[in-house]
Specification:
Blueprint: H1 5-20, H2 24-40, H3 43-49, H4 55-66, H5 73-84, H6 91-105, E1 108-115, H7 121-135, E2 139-146, E3 153-158, E4 161-166, H8 167-179
Parallel strand pairs: 1-2
Antiparallel strand pairs: 1-3, 3-4
Length: 180
């Protein structure tokens, strides 16, 4: 069976339960932290997939990786369900799928601005307002980063859309046109 399908099904079920219990936003924050933990620590996936690590130990580590507390019973119950169904190894994919479902349901768009140098607040505000107009009222999860290899300018990523206004891209396009 498709490995992407199973995590999406579990994420969808978790989302429904979280909405019923009115903790969908809290679970969203936990899943963001958990997905970030999986991305920054590849050994976490190895540990979760290891059959010699006790289920209780996996639950404790996943709870810590998500930043969950004793009050997060929905998350704890979900981990127990995954353990019973032998699906704990899919938790990273489930976390990412939950994030996608939550964003889609709440009209949240992920916006990343990458620039060659740090942007001053006036330029960043102008970019933000232009992106807001483009998104027609969607909520933005906005992040910025610096990539000196862009030489100058910036790149805006909105979910799967990309606006590349960097000098490195302009040089690449110029080179292509000269070669043709």
């Amino acid at each position: 069976m498709n490995e992407g399908l199973i995590p999406r099904r579990y994420a969808k079920a978790l989302y429904k339960v979280a909405v019923e219990r009115k903790v969908d936003e809290r679970v969203y924050m936990l899943m963001q932290t958990l997905a970030s933990s999986f991305d920054s620590m590849p050994a976490l996936q190895t540990m979760v997939s290891n059959p010699f690590v006790a289920p209780e130990e996996k639950e404790k580590i996943m709870t810590t990786a998500a930043g969950a507390t004793d009050a997060d019973s929905t998350f704890s119950d979900f981990l127990k369900l995954l353990d019973r169904n032998k699906r704990v190894d899919m938790l990273g994919g489930i976390a990412r799928a939950y994030i996608d479902i939550y964003r889609r349901q709440h009209n949240i768009r992920k916006v990343e601005v990458v620039s060659a140098a740090p942007l001053d607040s006036a330029v960043l505000q102008r970019i933000t307002s232009l992106v807001e107009k483009h998104l027609h009222g969607a909520t933005m999860e906005f992040s910025t980063s610096v990539d000196p290899s862009l030489i100058g300018g910036f790149v805006i990523n909105v979910d799967n859309e990309r606006l590349d206004a960097s000098l490195s891209n302009q040089f690449k396009e110029l080179r292509q046109s000269l070669l043709n």
